[in-house]
Design brief:
globular
Amino acid sequence: MKIEHYLQRSLKNNLLNWKLQIKAWFRSQTTIKVSKNAAPPVDYELVYEDKFDSHTKFEENWRYAHPWGDFHPKTLWRYWPKTNEVAYLSPAGLVLENRLKPKTFIKSELPKWRQKDWLPDEFTINWASGLVSSKQNWKHGWFEAEIMMPSERGMWSAFWLSGEDSWPPEIDIFEAYTDEDVNEISIQPNIHWGSVEDGTKKDYGAPKFKLHEPNRRYIQYACHWTEDFIKFYYDGHLVQVCDNPEMLKDLSAKQYVILNNGIKRPKDEYSPLQSAMVVRNFKVYQKKV
């Protein structure tokens, strides 16, 4: 994390988060036999649940890829198919694959706003990555999912929320990264707010957490988002509290949910392994009215 991330927090908040990070590190060094789940406050009620066991419900509530497109013009090594090629339901839950499946795009056939100056007239993206986004949007609540990470080199997988009509805002419940060692997984929460256009975009900061064997067991990842704070829970434990007033005021828009497997830019010394992330369930709770 950068110095600016610590400076935009209060001393009390920094001390609390350092304490939580130390506790998380000690837990990661022990053998965990049973995964734990955190629970939403007692005055919250379940407003949406998906066990990913119904194709009809899935098609009604989720879309393949982002609502704005199937690739990002600055990450031309992966795209997100708009069909169930690499994102599909199985007895285990929602499977999000990363697969070597080259696809050629024609610049002139893209919407005008996507025809960036630096894009060639024709280009091929090699890796298909599973990504689904919710058709529903929420403002505030408790968001959770039980997920088994992929065993993947160069991983960049995530469970996050993004603004209904703009970016930022963004709440990353986790982004998971690896390099060559598939078991050396860094898991990071983060928050983005402000505006790219006027140069006010900011990040809360993304400390790295390690969990015991997140690619061999299902772990609950949860976020509690209110007007007063955002809290992140991993494996049943609170790991970070975010309470910057400017940030919370700016996070006023409804957000949709994204679940994705993914990779960083492939390197010459190693290539991805075509692994999969599996999501066993997803739930949203909100405060009772």
